[in-house]
Amino acid sequence: MPITSVHHNGSDLLTEMSGLIRNDIITTPITILNRSGKKLAAFLDRRSDAGIGSAMVILVPGYGRTKSSHLRLAYYLALNGFCVARYDHSNHVGDSDGNMLFTTLGQMDEDLISVIDYAETVCVAPLIGLVAESLGARVALKRVAKDERIKFFVSLIGVFDVQDTLRLIYTEDGFTEKSQGIVLGIRDIMGFQVDADRFIDDAYENEFHSLETSMIDASRLSIPSFFFVAEKDPWVSQHAIRSVMSSCPEKTSEFHLLMGIMHDLYENPGVAADTCGEIVRAAKRTVAENSNEIGTVRTPSEKIIVSRSRLEKRASSKDLKTAEERLFWAEYLERYSYIIKLQDYWNLLDLIGSKLGHWNKNERILDAGCGIGNFGAFLLVRNLYQALQLRTASLRRKPWAQYVGVDFVQSAIRQARDLHSEIYGEFAPKVEWVTHGTPLIDFSYSVLDLNVSLPFKDKHFDKIVSNLVLSYVKDPQFTLGEMY
Hints:
By secondary structure, the chain is an alpha/beta fold. Helices cover 39% and strands 19% of the residues.
């Protein structure tokens, strides 16, 4: 059971051969029908000077991820001679058919079978490998244990004890409640509202649910298997991964520890680059005819990856309509209002406040994507306490700050206004000036969409904060340009 650690120490471990600046990769959109007749949206990536060939790597997306999630890894593999198939699950996020409400691991398995079927038909003397992420790795493990067409398997930050992972996230796992006859209904599963009864029943019936079932599947592996594990993963214990690996037949598995990251490979670009290189090497070892071909890893152009990523994001045909998107975010913000009660979240807000630098009296601050007003509440509470301690508020002639909160969900704006008023109300019995004097913070709110031009003059604001927002706008570069 070979063990290595993957970390980034400031040096590029992939400098053996750099990729060309021009685009050496062809990406072709394809459609695959799964066995239920649903259309799976997919891409084929291959080097421009090569055909499809005999070796194909299928990238199995994790839960809540799409075919574009591992674009970087796909381009690493393609540039180094593999044909890569990446796809969106049905009944999931992305461009494939179906609704996320009805997602199940069994459905993800059915989709994977269909993609393997496709790979078998288009490859010459097919040699097929799987690289699977998170819950996708649990699905892939069971498929690898059954399907002799797969020649190597890479688990990338895999979840192999579904019940325990759900318990770590929610303090309840769904399986225990179901065993007690409790109806779960529509419930949050790892960030998405789904039919929880359907999801849990399917996981149990198809034996995806426990560490023990994963160990049984692992015991049936007869191919090289590589387990990449995040050092600080809050959802997956290293013990669980090692238990799965110990169940693999001798000398078929390798353990790679990804240093310093949690449950997302791309949170650290250095580790991500090194890991992509390690996966390329692992895949090469399973297909190379001579050992001289294994060590060389070509690195794709960063410019090409960024350009392709933007293109795929804009081309997605399944963007929520504005009305549906507003409803989604209204429900999301309502559901996660408890977050402001968590100390770790307040530590984050405190960090943001410190990054905004020194405050001058009556500065204007824009809270872009304010949601239900958490950052405004933080500013208010912090400065109310400071004012009480200093006892200088009675001398105040101007507000300490002018706060403008904007969001495109009207109900969130309403909640923000109510939250800030409630905080003022709590302090009213303590000091008369809170309600009768000049306001400590002059709050105002607007329903605005950050995807379009903002209706403010240039240099109107002294400070801008946009917390947990930019990853959700359609064109982050445009929105940042507006703020700038």
